[in-house]
Amino acid sequence: MTITPRHDDARLFERALLPTPQLVHPGLRFETALISSRAGIVSGDFFDCIQLDDGRVRAVIGDVSGHGTDEAALGVSLRAGWRALVVAGLDDDDVLGGLERLLECERPRGDEYATVCDLTISADLGHVIVRSAGHPPPVLVDTGPLLDRHRRTPLGVARRTDRPAGTAFPLGSTWSLVLYTDGLFEIRDYAGEILPMEAVGPAVDRVAVDGTVHPRRLLAEFASRGPAGWRDDVAVGVLSTTPTA
Question: pTM value?
């Protein structure tokens, strides 16, 4: 039996957590970045993005509670499960419910939970529906956070039997939409205070270039705010159009 080194295990997990986006539209791009808060500890953060045959774009970002191999394995299951539910044609409003049932089956201890933000972008790329399960809201450049008025608790905390429809927002002709996990802003500033979620919107606008945000620029912006670095894993995904879109 071959024993795989731990750092190789981490790379395998991260490849499964962060798949290649499946986008067909030439005017769309999805750029990502992931940081583990501790060396050798695999992140449970995950994201995915896929364009369906009808032209709609589906995207997700999530954060499994805790750190380590079990949490990363659960994140892999949720990421793959989300894509399977979407590709199978489950109604968009039912995907978070299906993902919660998957989490309840897969969590090893029985008390793990996950925050998730699930998006549907219309085929004409002009509107987005945001569905949140306890997750920080995505930020639209030059507009601010897109808060889901019907948001639910994190998956695995208190199962809902209804079907929250999410909240719809216009996107405009060209746009850049930033998805992230809470580790991005949960960093101590030079005064020792943890940054609030409200710091993300202004930071996104500060680092935008020609209306577009690059994930590494956003990470650098927050890294400059705190001398001790991140306290939690960080995932960032930026879905953007280009003028040709």
Answer: 0.90
